[in-house]
Amino acid sequence: MTRRISVIRTVAAFVLLSTGLAAGRDCSECHKQHLSGGDFSAWRSNTGDWQNAGDAQLDPANEKLLMTRSGSGALVNGPTGRTVNLFSKQEFGDLRAHVEFVVAKDSNSGVYFQGRYEIQVYDSWQKPSEYPGIECAGIYQRWDDRRNPQGYEGHSPRVNASRPPGKWQTLDVVFRAPRFDKTGRKIANARFEKVVHNGVLVHRDVELTGPTRASAYNDEKPVGPLMLQGDHGPVGYCNLWVAPAGPNPFFAFDNACEDAQHKTIQEQAQMLKELGYAGIGPHYAGPGPMAEMLKVLDENNLEMFAIYTGINIDPGVQAYDPSLKEGIKVLAGRNAILWIYAQSKQYKPSATGGDRRAVEILTELAEEAAKHQVRISLYPHTGFWMESMDDVVRIAELVNRPNVGVTFNLCHWLRVSSSRDAKAVLEKAMPRLSVVSINGADTDGKDWKTLIQTLDHGTFDMKGFLETLRDAGYTGPIGFQGYAIGGDAYDNLKRTMAAWEKHSQVLRGDVKPFGEPRKVQ
C-alpha cells in the first residue's frame, strides 16, 4: 500500500499543478488537512462497518465485492459495502479537496460536500449514461416528488474519464459554499468551481440551487461536514485531504493579451498559463475559430470563461450574428458564458421602449443556450442601449431564465455612474451576478486611459472593492479588462497578476477550519 499511495501522491501532485488546482501562492498547502490515515480520528464516532485497511482491490471470487489487505491508510465500507455514511468532525465552507477512490463492479458511492452536494462515485467504465449526474464524477441530481420528472438539475461530466472497477481513481474539486446575509437569507448558491476526474476537467462553475438527492440535510448552511456515502455498494477511499479553496478564478480579456509578440491564441495561451491566469474571455469570432481556440486552451489547461458578442434590438435589423446558434453548440457541456451587450439606433441608452424586443431576442438565445448548458451574462457598456447595471438587472429579471445573469464591469460602472459606492449596486445584482471585470482605475477618471489601467495602477480602492464583492456573496470568476492599455502584454499581465495576488488576499476566506498552518517542505 505504501508504494501505491506514494505513486498516486506524485501523480496527483502533477495533476493538481497541470490543471490549475494547485494554489501554492496562497499557502493552501500550509493548511492541508488529511482526513484518511491510520485511524478514524477525523470522522464522527459512528463509523459502522468502515475499516482501515492497507489496500482495496477487486475480490477475484466476486468482482462486485472488494477485498482488503492488512495495513492502514485506506477507508473501506466493510465486507458487503452496505454500512453507514461517514461524516467528518470538522465542518467546512469553501474548500479544495483531493479524493482517491476505488469501486467494485457496478458499485456506487458519493462524496457530499457539506453533507449536501454530491459528486458521484460510480462504476462508469465504458457505460452509457442513464440520466445526467449518475455518471462517475457527475454532479448528482436534485429530487422533487411533485415534479415530472422528479429528478432535475443533474450535471453529467464533459467526458467519461472513468477507469475500470478495481482501479484507483482521483477527484480534485474546488467547492464554494452558499452565501447568506446577516438575516440568514441565501444570497448566492453553492457551486462547484472545478471538478477534475483522473486528471481531466469535467465540470467548471456549476451552481447548485439546493441539496442533491440523498443528502444528509435538506437545509443549506455556510458550513457543513464532508460525507462519504457508505450504503450503496463496495468502495474504498484513501489520500483524502482538504485545503482552503483560495480566491475566485482570475482570467484575462483577450484585449489584454495581444501585442506584436502574442498574436496567436497559442502564444497567448502559453503566456496566460505561465503567468498563472485561469483562462481568457475572447470576442466571438464564429464556430470554427472558437473550436480551434478551445482546443488550444484545453491543451494548456485554460478555460474560455466568457465570449463577447452582441445583439441589436432595432426592428428590421439582424438581431445577432447568424452563426451564433452554431457557436453555442461548440460550447456544449462547458457551462461557458456568452457576454451579451445590446445596441440600438432607435432607442437611447437605458430607454425602456426597447425592453420588449430585447427580451424577445434574449429569450430565444437563452432557450437555445440552455439546450447546451451555456449561460448568458448581460454586459453593460457605456453608450450602448444596455448601459448601466440598472439596465442589465432590469432586463435579466424580465427575461427570467435561470441561465441568464448579469456582469459588473468596473470601468463602465465608473464611466456611467456618479456614485463610487459599489455596495448597493452589487447587492442589487446578486444573485444574478455571474461575471465581474476589474482593472486599475482612477477614482475620478473621465476617459479610458484613466479608467482602464493595469491592476497595479490607479487611485481606485481595489482592496475595498473586493471586500465589498466578497461581502455581497459573489464567488464566481473575475476578469481583467485590458482594453487599449497598450505596451507589452506580458509585462502588463505580469504586473496585474502580482497586484491580484496582493489584492485577492481578502477573497481567500476563513482558513481556521483547516487548522494551524504548517511549514511546507
What labels describe this entry?
8-stranded antiparallel β-sheet, TIM Barrel, 2 domains, 25 strands, 9-stranded parallel β-sheet, Jelly Rolls, 23% helix, 521 residues, 11 helices, alpha/beta, single chain
Structural class: alpha/beta
Shape: globular
Mean of residue pLDDT values: 92
User: What kind of assembly state do the chains in view correspond to?
Assistant: single chain
Separation, N- and C-terminal Cα atoms: 23 Å
CATH fold category name of the largest domain: TIM Barrel
Low-confidence stretches: 1-25
- Order the strands across the largest sheet as they lie in space: 19-18-17-25-24-23-22-21-20
Q: How would a textbook summarize the main sheet?
A: 9 strands, parallel
Overall CATH class of the largest domain? Alpha Beta
Helix tally equals 11
Strand residues, percent = 25-35%
